[in-house]
Model the fold of this input.
Amino acid sequence: MNAFLDVKRYLEELARESNAGVPVQYPPEEKMGDLALPVGFKLAKILKKSPQEAAAEFSKKIEHPLIERVGVVGGYVNVFLRRAEIAKDVLKRAVSEDYGKEKPTGERVVIDYSSINVAKPMHVGHLRSTIIGGSLRRIYRFRGVEAIGINYLGDIGTQFGKLIVAYKKWVDEDALEREPIKELLRIYVKFHEEAEKNPDLEREAREAYKRLEEGDEEYVQLWKRFRELTIKYAEKIYRLLGVEFDEISGESFYVEKARELAETLLKMGIAERDPETGAILVDFGNLGKDIILKSDGTTLYLSRDLAALLDRVERYNPKKLVYVVGSEQSDHFRKLFWLARKLGVDRELVHVSFGLINLPEGKMSTRKGRVIFLEDVLNKAIALAGEEMRKRGTYNEEDARKIGVGALNYAILKVEPEKNITFQWSRVLSFEGDTGPYLQYSAVRARKILEKAGDWEFKAADTVNDDEWRLIKLIARFPETLSDVMAKDRPHILARYAYDLARTFHSFYDRNPVLQSDEPTRSFRIGIVKAFYNVLSRSLNLLLIDVPERM
Done:
């Protein structure tokens, strides 16, 4: 922990000891201090004094060698730090490329993300789960927590009965060889079009799915082919996005275990058998009743997910299980976690719920074939980035890929997960303002300064001006920002931080010469640039964004 965060922790502990446990705040202006505690409002009732008087009394307890002075305004205690001493400690740490990295803690977290459906295309709607989960995995690992990334495929369910029927009736084997997922989508859409005219197709599909679950050799081989084609297709997209997994599993792995669990829940009195249909169901109170095993013995999403959750707890012994899945599944996860608790699971269970990515013409539908293929989105992003680079005379293929993919990843990650996103090319791929390319340009700009600086040795400064101080304070907050992301499982916190950092750097650099300054100011400011570059480039890496060579 650096000196800046040490002082902050000291103030928080002092507030707790004084029965005024309030979070330390970061004032928006230098004149309001470097740190502020709104203790007066809480202590006023305890001390039976005004907030101003209570804050003043608390301020007398503050004694720390790195605090220069303390002011009181209303119920706030404003703390001003010794800039030179804090700056020296922060920068000496941050010029190391491992700044913010933690040693292995021995803790483990399981993260379920992307979790695509077999035989269906990855579309723009898959971006949020895939990128949020991929970013969280990197952040946890950087902070010393062993994050296990799982791609839990939707590889079982009644849609496979429909697909098998469609395959046997309408598949074009040549098209399947060339573009497997697009051909599987074509016949899947055709099934639903034909089923509207011929309802018997739905019956055929149910029968085909039942045969698949019962292990029919022909149908199992078809299913395996669909699965392998999907994984191969998805791996190419994951490589472009910079997303990695430690395990690829699927709902199909848990069919037998799900059946056993349904019977166990029945015996425990948690589940009941429907007297009319014979299905096994659970009463979730205000969430209603839900079937966990159909009368014909086929399993459902909920029972398979429960089996998978218990398996992950047994195999990995994690302190936390995180599911990065859309908000439309919120009730599902409330039920899943309720059942897990009933079965004795005592780990932290988190559903990172996110909103939809909508098309201008409405919600996407695989059945109707109204999708934007993710592969096409990535290719277009890269192509548009290349066009912009050609205008600037800086084009090369690899940097175009980094800029195009980075623009897309940042446009998704900077938005709070709960908010919906309406997909618009102009917004996603803008090269100005709060965008991925702006952050990449900031990193490239800093790297060029460092290249021109040549060999240098960090030197502390006796005085630190406001521009330098604002940037140093942000650099100091990098480890805390990562801890905040992990506590809330929200990478947008890091994205917002990275943008503030880049914007503050430009303000500093535009007003303060670096290489043209006299010593020791020159070496001190090069140290600021180096620390900034380390923190921003690391932040981008944790957000699945690569720094280009040129822009």
